[in-house]
Amino acid sequence: MITAYGDSMSGNCYKLQLVLNMLDVDHLWQEMSITNGETQTPEFLAKNPQGKIPLIELDDGRVLSESNAIMGYLAEGSDLIPTDTFSKAKMYQWMFFEQYSHEPYIAVARFIQLYLGLPEDRLAEYHSLHVKGHKALAAMEAELAWQPFLCGSQFTLADIALFAYTHVAHQGGFDLAHYPQINQWLIRIKQQAGFLLMES
Questions:
Q1: Is residue 95 domain-shared with residue 141, that is, in the same domain?
Q2: Dist. CA 106–CA 101, nearest whole Å
Q3: Where are the annotated coiled coils located (predicted)?
């Protein structure tokens, strides 16, 4: 059985929960708290020297980190990964976009607002994050204006990856009312079989 280590309030960990639930993967979820230092214990650092979650551990002791890599492993051979070569490449394009052009801005703004309570010394950073965060949302809005999901008509890992922090973007001060296509996309994702609400 796969053991998954994660924090249910983390978008990167929530991605795994969605894939595990949607694909009905037999697993054990090990809840961990970054703020309580649980990822920095000698036991966990022996599994992942970076002290980061999410992480999965296989029966044979092998471990895998980085949320999008884990999702790819879990979903191999499933309908969450396109079989068409170009569509699969588009899926990875959006997953790289999520990690480099979306998550660093929207997730960090959420952390500053939700977890830190907008401290004075991080307000300038917080507002600067909004510029690039809205740029990422605008790119998604444009893509979703002509197709139901990010890779066309098929719901893929790219949608899960970008759903994780987009659906809670308001917790980082982003008003999604300005993005009607994204809002319709969020509804479509919530209608997928095995959808699981994020813990709050």
A1: yes
A2: 9
A3: none
User: Is a pLDDT exceeding 70 seen at residue 44?
Assistant: yes
Each residue's pLDDT tens digit, 111-136 = 999 989 999 999 999 999 999 999 99
CB neighbourhood size of 173 (10 A): 18
69 and 20 fall within a common domain:
yes
The total of other beta-carbon atoms located within 10 Å of residue 123's CB is 11
Identify the residue whose tokens are 């979703």.
144
Mean pLDDT (whole number) for 85-114: 97
Per the CB < 8 A criterion, the answer to whether 93 and 168 are in contact is no
Let me know: does 187 contact 159? Beta carbons within 8 Å: no
| β-pairing verdict for 27-31 and 55-57 | unpaired
Residue 198 is given by DSSP the state P
Residue 165 domain-assigned (yes or no) = yes
